[in-house]
Design goal:
By secondary structure, the chain is an alpha+beta fold. It contains 5 helices and 4 strands; from the N terminus they run αααβαββαβ. A 4-stranded antiparallel β-sheet has the order 2-3-1-4, with helices on one face. The longest helix is centred in the first third of the chain and has 13 residues. The protein is elongated, with a radius of gyration of 20 Å. It starts with 5 loop residues before the first helix and ends in a 17-residue tail after the last strand. About 15% of the residues are buried. This is Lrp/AsnC family transcriptional regulator. Keywords: DNA-binding, Transcription, Transcription regulation. InterPro entries: ArsR-like_HTH (IPR011991), AsnC-type_HTH_dom (IPR000485), Dimeric_a/b-barrel (IPR011008), Tscrpt_reg_AsnC-like (IPR019888), Tscrpt_reg_AsnC/Lrp_C (IPR019887), Tscrpt_reg_HTH_AsnC-type_CS (IPR019885), WH-like_DNA-bd_sf (IPR036388), WH_DNA-bd_sf (IPR036390).
Length: about 160
């Protein structure tokens, strides 16, 4: 990240907020002309700092207002089991986030569903995965903050 200058940092902050801006608008905001601005964005994409460009959808409007945080314990700790679990998570569209954790639980999942019955159907698919020894489900009551924007570290 140290190779990023102030303009790169500005571009990243702007793009995280609104990737639909034209190159002209981006260039104007950071004080460049179109071609150098485009080249910088290409460099940020090629370096992997910009992974993807996506549309963020509204879960409530789509009829998916329930977020559940499922903490999963396993009694299996082999590489094969971890690979199998990762594949299972990739195949479950309800799982929008999955992290391997340190602490009392091995994994935490954020699951987005339409209602409790939909979560119950998901839960039954989840526990069918062998080697899961415990699942603790926590239903979100209110979303206080949700962001896809990462804090851009300041330059040196």
């Amino acid at each position: 990240m140290s190779s990023l200058d102030a303009i790169d940092r500005q571009l990243l902050a702007i793009l995280q907020s609104d990737v639909s801006l034209s190159i002209e608008e981006l260039a104007e905001r950071v004080g460049l002309t179109k071609t150098p601005c485009w080249r910088r964005i290409q460099k940020l994409e090629k370096s992997g700092i910009i992974r993807r460009k996506v549309a963020l959808l509204d879960a409530e409007v789509l009829g998916l207002p329930v977020s559940v945080f499922a903490q999963v314990k396993t009694n299996q700790h082999s590489a094969e089991w971890a690979d199998s679990f990762s594949s299972a998570m990739a195949d479950l569209p309800e799982v929008v986030d999955c992290y391997r954790m340190a602490g009392d639980y091995d994994y935490i999942l954020r699951v987005v569903v339409s209602d409790v019955a939909a979560y119950d159907r998901f839960y039954k698919k989840l526990i069918a995965h062998t080697g899961i020894s415990d699942v603790a489900s926590n239903f979100a009551m209110e979303q206080i903050k949700s962001s896809t924007e990462l804090p851009i570290p300041p330059g040196d």
